[in-house]
Amino acid sequence: MKSDEILVAVKQQELLSRKISELPLKIEATHLRQLIHELYKELEMAGIAFKPKTYLSNGWGCPNEVPVIGIPFYLADPILSKLQSQMTGKNVDDDTTIMMLLRHEAGHTFNYAYRIYDKPEWRKHFGRFSLPYQDDYKVDPLSNRFVHHLAGFYAQKHPDEDFAETFAVWLTPHSNWQKVYANTPALKKLQYVNKVLAKYGEKTPIVTDGKLDMPVEAMAITLGEWYQTVYKNHDKRAARTK
Asked: Are 27 and 33 in contact (CB under 8 A)?
């Protein structure tokens, strides 16, 4: 092994031994902040005054019924992003994918901020919000009842995901959703989102905050331990699908 390779290996080992909560991570002054501002511009152009807060977490997501977007902590640092790719063997999300995910999570936050999921018409279009989540969900690739945004036909996972995906398609610039989904049941959902956004877009949110789900400051395990946990959970999920 060359001397520069040894140096990289040593630095990587040092990094893996650090507690995640002790890493100097923040969204401010990063490329992530630019992408979040792009999301805010899209929301503003769509007539939505609400701008969801963001925080670094262990992965993408929103705390249940809390209108805040959690973003994977490793995306806040190029060194951690590179390490993530090395440890998982997969490329980290590029800007296009990050924007898709931000729009999706923004759909959740809008749903939670105004408690749209409590409305009878929401249930009519998307189903019961209280349905349990399942890792393994049945997919109908040919169904035209759902929009197609994130990979894996994610809108079919749960009514809440269906709304978030529909919102994301509605928000995406130049998505041309009226034509793409013409004469399909999915169009009725998009039209509902359009109506709801017109009604609530300029109103003050009912819910603005709440308990965060695994903020980076609470991740008191080392980076190496975190990867071990990720791999362990991945192996369990893979075993269930065999």
From this structure: yes
* Spatial distance between the Cα atoms of 162 and 154, rounded to a whole number of angstroms: 7
Which sign, positive or negative, has the C-alpha torsion 208, 210, 212, 217? positive
Q: Provide the strand spans (E) within 33-159.
A: 53-57, 68-72
Q: What is the rounded distance in angstroms from the CA atom of residue 177 to the CA atom of residue 190?
A: 8
Task: Return the percent helix, strand and coil in the chain, to nearest 5.
Answer: 55, 5, 40
Min mean pLDDT across 65-69, 96-100, 232-236 is at 232-236
Q: At which residue do the structure tokens 């959740």 appear?
A: 108
Query: Which residues, listed in sequence order, are joined to residue 68 by a DSSP beta bridge?
Result: 53
Question: Distance between CA 37 and CA 105 in Å, rounded?
Answer: 14
Residue 4 pLDDT class (50, 70, 90 cuts) = very low
Q: What is the pLDDT of residues 135-173, one digit of tens each?
A: 888 899 999 999 999 999 999 999 999 999 999 999 999
Instruction: Say how far apart CA 19 and CA 6 lie, in whole Å.
Output: 22
Asked if 50 and 110 touch (Cβ cutoff 8 Å), the reply is: yes
Tell me if 146 sits within 8 A of 165, measured CB to CB.
Answer: yes
State the helix-helix crossing angle for 223-241 and 3-16, rounded to 10 degrees: 80
Interaxial angle between packed helices 185-200 and 159-171, expressed in degrees from 0 to 180 and rounded to the nearest 10: 80
